[in-house]
Each structure stands twice: as structure tokens, then as C-alpha cells.
Amino acid sequence: MTTLPNGALDRGQEPRTGLPLWLQTEFRGRLLWAVNEPHLDFMERFVAAGVREQRPGNSTLASRLPAWIKSAKHRPALLKAFAGMRSTLPESHATRKARG
């Protein structure tokens, strides 16, 4: 069984390798990160959504997002930060996303 370093993701590191995550940026004194493009897509959609339905408990990815990401007051700034993170993806990814 592999032991993952405590808090590796909170430090912006991939847990198994310890290498820095590609998709990360500072956001108001906090580290904002995504493991991969689908994770970034999910967070963008969640933050952009006007109405967010959630199931009770802690069983969904959305339920595990920090409160500061869920806060509507951060919505415009977070979407801008996500766009900046997306701009670091290789051209093929950014072009595919722009086409929808």
C-alpha cells in the first residue's frame, strides 16, 4: 500500500510523485489548484453556476470544495483565476475548450 504525503495537494504537489501540480495559482493568499483539465472544468462549471444543488453529506466532489471556493462573492475573481490556469494548458487543450 502506498502512503501519500500528508497535505501534498494543499501544498500544490502531486501526492504520489511530490512534483508540483501544473494547474495552480495563488488566490487571495490561498493556493488554488486543479489536478487535471477535467477537475478544472468541474470547478469552473460549479463556480459559474447560479444555482447549485447539493446532496446532504460529504459524498460528492462539490461537497468537499472549500467554503471560499463555494462563496458567491469570489465568483468573478475565481473565474478569472481559472481562465489564467487554463491558459497554461497546451494549445491543443485550450483550442478544444474554446470550440466547446
In short:
The chain is 37% helix and 10% strand. By secondary structure, it is an alpha+beta fold. The mean pLDDT is 80.
Question: What order do the helices and strands come in, and which of them pair?
Answer:
Layout lengths: L22 E5 L2 E5 L2 H12 L18 H4 L4 H12 L4 H9 L1
Antiparallel strand pairs: 1-2
Helix pairs in contact: 1-3
**Backbone CA Rg:** 14 Å
- Spans of at least 5 consecutive residues whose pLDDT stays below 50 are none
Task: Please tell me the overall pLDDT.
Answer: 80
Helix amount, in percent? 25-40%
When the domains are counted, the total is 1
Summed up, the helix count is 4
- Largest beta-sheet details: 2 strands, antiparallel
DSSP, total strands: 2
| H and E order | EEHHHH
Approximate strand percentage = 5-15%
Alpha-beta classification:
alpha+beta
